[in-house]
Structures are given as structure tokens and as C-alpha cells.
Amino acid sequence: MFFPVVIIVTFLRLLGSAEPTPPAKGVLRVYGMKFCPYVQRLKLVLAAKGVAHETININLLSKPKWYFTKNPMGKVPTIEIDDVVIYESDIVSEYVDAVYPGRKLCTTNALKSAKEKMFLVYWGNNCVVNYYKYARELKNNDQEAKDAFCALVKEGLEKTATFLENNGTPYICGSQPGLTDYLLYPHLERINAIVPVDLKQIPRVKAYFDAMQEDEAVKSCRFSNELHLEFIKKYVTGDVGAYDIGPVAE
Amino acid sequence: MFFPVVIIVTFLRLLGSAEPTPPAKGVLRVYGMKFCPYVQRLKLVLAAKGVAHETININLLSKPKWYFTKNPMGKVPTIEIDDVVIYESDIVSEYVDAVYPGRKLCTTNALKSAKEKMFLVYWGNNCVVNYYKYARELKNNDQEAKDAFCALVKEGLEKTATFLENNGTPYICGSQPGLTDYLLYPHLERINAIVPVDLKQIPRVKAYFDAMQEDEAVKSCRFSNELHLEFIKKYVTGDVGAYDIGPVAE
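C-alpha cells for the assembled complex are given below, as produced in the milestone run.
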């Protein structure tokens, strides 16, 4: 069952502007950045659980000073509700899953949970790291390096296929997407958009990606391949306007 | 209540030797390294819960090939029991806490758990990172760099004092040490032994460290300051014999 999400997007085109007033009592605020995969993790979790929230986007290439009073590391996402401030995408996502109603996304079986977490570490160290290395080459444009990083991403996706096959369920978390699926998906969306790996060559990952595309939470939070490519090309050149491309509210 | 721990230490002085036979049915095996703080995390958890286990130590400066079949990243700790293999110190520790009897170490309150996890991220990015930078200077011996890293560690410990004060309990997890305490403690032990920060100048951290020293799990897993210093001096110079110093069974 899917709970419709009410998202009030307060997108700060006036970057570096004054600190916003605190959120109204009981209102969950997300400090994010439209194209950040770590923010998308949280947005997917909020969408899957049907949690209403408002969003203030931070320009990560020109961070306003006040933001460091919310998150001393200046990273996104951060959530704020009443006197509670929490950051780090996995920690926030787990917190949101624990305290809000809606279907529970966390895997409760200890062994399955451990295997999912171990796989997320692998995914981060391989697919994600090599995706970013590839993305940086969109600026340097060293074809040899691009090919090498693309090959490493492909190798990581093949290991992902093996993990999914061993799992024996359509999604990592089971018969429907769970927390681990939502933590993994944002970089898969970007890899599919930006790295020239043909997912059809890795059928199990293609099937997984296609299934995720049908998920209502994913539908409400995904970006087009074209927008991802436009953003990343601006981002790697340090263009502070990168965050303002595309529609204001997504 | 403290459960006595039976630890069978199979310390491999013959490094790079043949793959050991699998653990006997139902026996929990830890692949570790005597002085590794991430292994000590798990040892503390096992001790606090009174979980019997055997240990095979891996020489991290000369890893045997067979070890990569247990943990593809070649890191420690890894646990093996029957057909289950799990690695990454936090994941293994959570798993052990979930599946073994004994007192539960994980913090269950969602907000408190999130705050503890956020603090562990801070601790890792500040105290731990700067501890290692300081330790590496034991080889290079650049006094200016040593002073700078020492000052950063001290700053991190002051933030730790503030966190503990806000917490309002003797330990991070409450009235007795819990999982977060055991995940944090190993680097605090090393900082106290190796970095010239006088904990007396940071009374809240000193009180915390002293209280941890009285914990039975800590007593069973700690190393002397002298052994830490001897190990780290050998380790930073790449001495493969570093892992064999001290008594065989600790």
C-alpha cells in the first residue's frame, strides 16, 4: 500500500541567505539538495512511509554559514523536527522508519540484516566509489580512465547480480522494497543514467532496476537520465548553478 | 552481571600458512588481530555477553590468501560459525548482540540510538582519524605535525566531554556500558596510551575512561599502554613481526 506524500518544497534560490525560521511545531523539515543521492535515500524512505515533510535545499558548492549550526559537517541530508536534529542518511532513514507509522522498512532478521549491511558496504566501496570516479572523468575526459572506471562499475554490478540471485527475492529486502533497497537505489539510478554500462548485459540487475522503477516511492523521487547528466556535468566543473537546474519542486 | 568468557586463542605464528579447517559445529570463530581496535570492539561485545569463541589472528601486513575467501576485503574482524560468515566490526557486533543471549547491548530508543550513531561518526572522523595521523608521525617524527594532530585529538575529546555531559549518564549507553561504548572505547584506550593528551585536563572524559577501566569486559580485553606503544611503533614502520609481540593469549 502506498501513502501519498505531501511535500512542501521551499527551494532556496537565494543561496547563502539568512537562516530560515525553525519549522512549525510538529513539522518535519529535510535539509537536502535536489540531486544528492544521499538525500534521495531519505526521500524514498519518507515517500514509502507516506511521511509529510517540507524541504530546504542547500547549495553544497556554496554552503550558508547557518547550516553548520544544524549539521556541523555541513552535509545533507539533515532532518529537523521540534528540538530534534539528525543527520547521516542511513541514521536518519533508520530513525524515520522507527518513529513514523507506515510499513516498516528495516529488515528485522539479524542474519539477513547483517548480510544486507555487508552488501551495502561492498556497494559503497565499489559501485559508488567507481561511479564518482567515472563522473569526475566527465570533466577530465580521459577515455582510458573512463573505460577503467566503467569496467569496475560493471564488475560491481555483476557482484550485485550474484547477491540478488542468492537472495532469491525480487528486492534485496524481500517481496517489496525495504530500507536497504532505498539506500542502494539512488546510485543505481545515477549509474544507469551516466555510466555506459548496458544493464541488459546484467539481466538480474536490469530486472531489479525495472522492478524498482515500478515502485511508487521511486516514481515520486526519481530524476530523468537527462537531468542527471546535465547536473553531473555542471557539478564536476564546480558550477554553483548546478543545483538550480530542472523544475523547482520534484 | 558478568558472564565469564572462555576464549580459545589459536594464534598463528606461522603466518601465511594453509587455510585452517572450518570451526567445529556450533563453535564461533573470530578472525582477528591482537592489537586491532576494530577486533577489540567485537571482543568487548563477546566478553560483555559472555560468548565463548575461538580466535585465529591474521597478520595484516602479510595476509594469507585463503583469508580473502572468508572476507573479500581481507579486513578484520570476521566471524564464522557453521555456514555463516559476517564481517565489519559494527555489523558483526550488532549481529552478535542480536543472536546471542546475555544482556542486550544495543540502544533501543530510536532517538538515543540515532544520537549515539551520529556521535560515533563524529568520533571516527575526528578522534580516530587524528589518532592515526598522530601515530604515523611516530615514524616520520615531525614534531609540528605531531603537535597539530595531538591538538585535534584533544579538540575531539573536548567534544566527547560535551556529549557525555549532555548525555547525563556515566556511560554513553546509560548506567552501564552498551554497544556504543564498546565501539568507541578501543580508540580511547589507544589515544590514552599513545597521544600526549592528559585526560585529567578533560575531567568528563577522564571519569568515563576510568569507569570503563572498571568494566569486566574491558578488563578482559585491554592492553597495557606499553604494549600499545611497542606495537604501534613497529606497525608504522611496516614490521611484520609487530603482531607477535606480547603474550600469545590475551
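Residues 110-214 of chain A form a domain with the Glutathione S-transferase Yfyf (Class Pi); Chain A, domain 2 fold (CATH 1.20.1050.10). The interface with chain B takes residues 72-73, 84, 86-88, 91-92, 94-95, 98-99, 110-111, 113-115, 117-118, 121-122, 125 of chain A (CB under 8 Å). Further analysis is deferred to the final report.
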